[in-house]
């Protein structure tokens, strides 16, 4: 139908668009054929929001915008475009104006914060030998090892970039909390979810990588956002 939305997926730190692989496959199984996944540079919030806006503007029709991890900050910043009908946060930051992912993490430090390591070029990594236990403890070791080796490190400075406008103040929100998240404290996720007045908050017994380990439940939430905001 003409009003069928495009689902635009926005990845976070330490991975690229392919982190959404299981969600993409599940969406496609359920008949969704309008799916796009942004590949952000992870150089600054402004750069990543602009790249995401360009993707949204290429879409003819409504968009349901989905962000994982730091991608939540990106959709918060970029989600005010008029064709964005819903925001879905997957174990993600949902900062208010003047807040940054780094600042929010300092307020309520996650369990694995000590496993982050900056390099001499200014990029911030998850220590490869700590990636499984930090990011994806509910995935098979081989799957987590591939993620660790292929991780896309952000510029560390991007962690401190403040949101300038919070799209969740004007757009309907759905939020998935990972109760075993070691990269964003689960209580921080709960607080941010409540603050957005999310229409539904789903708690999953999952790691930070819930988009990979619990793709079916994540897609359930995306589908609810699609149904409830369909024109």
Automatic annotation (TrEMBL):
One of its GO terms (molecular function) is hydrolase activity. Keywords: Hydrolase. Residues 7-220 form the AB hydrolase-1 domain. It comes from the Bacteria. InterPro entries: AB_hydrolase_1, AB_hydrolase_fold, Sec-Metab_Biosynth_Hydrolase. It holds the Pfam family Abhydrolase_6. The keyword Membrane does not apply. PANTHER family: AB HYDROLASE-1 DOMAIN-CONTAINING PROTEIN-RELATED, ESTERASE_LIPASE_THIOESTERASE DOMAIN-CONTAINING PROTEIN. This is Alpha/beta hydrolase. It comes from Streptomyces litmocidini.
């Amino acid at each position: 139908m003409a009003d069928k939305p495009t689902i635009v997926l926005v990845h976070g730190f330490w991975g690229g668009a392919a982190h959404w692989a299981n969600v993409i496959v599940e969406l496609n199984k359920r008949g969704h054929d309008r799916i796009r996944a942004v590949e952000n540079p992870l150089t600054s919030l402004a750069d990543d929001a602009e790249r995401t806006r360009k993707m949204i503007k290429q879409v003819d029709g409504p968009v349901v915008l989905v962000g994982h991890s730091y991608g939540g900050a990106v959709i918060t910043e970029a989600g005010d475009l008029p064709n964005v009908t819903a925001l879905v946060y997957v174990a993600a930051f949902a900062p208010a104006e003047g807040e940054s992912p780094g600042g929010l993490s300092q307020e309520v430090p996650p369990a694995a914060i000590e496993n982050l390591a900056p390099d001499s070029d200014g990029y911030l990594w998850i220590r490869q030998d700590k990636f499984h236990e930090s990011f994806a403890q509910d995935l098979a070791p081989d799957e987590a090892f591939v993620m660790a080796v292929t991780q896309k490190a952000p510029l560390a400075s991007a962690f401190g970039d403040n949101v300038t406008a919070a799209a969740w103040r004007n757009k309907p929100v759905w939020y998935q909390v990972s109760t075993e998240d070691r990269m964003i404290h689960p209580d921080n996720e709960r607080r941010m979810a409540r603050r957005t007045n999310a229409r539904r908050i789903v708690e999953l017994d999952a790691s930070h990588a819930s988009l990979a380990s619990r793709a079916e439940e994540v897609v359930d939430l995306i589908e609810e956002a699609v149904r409830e905001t369909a024109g």
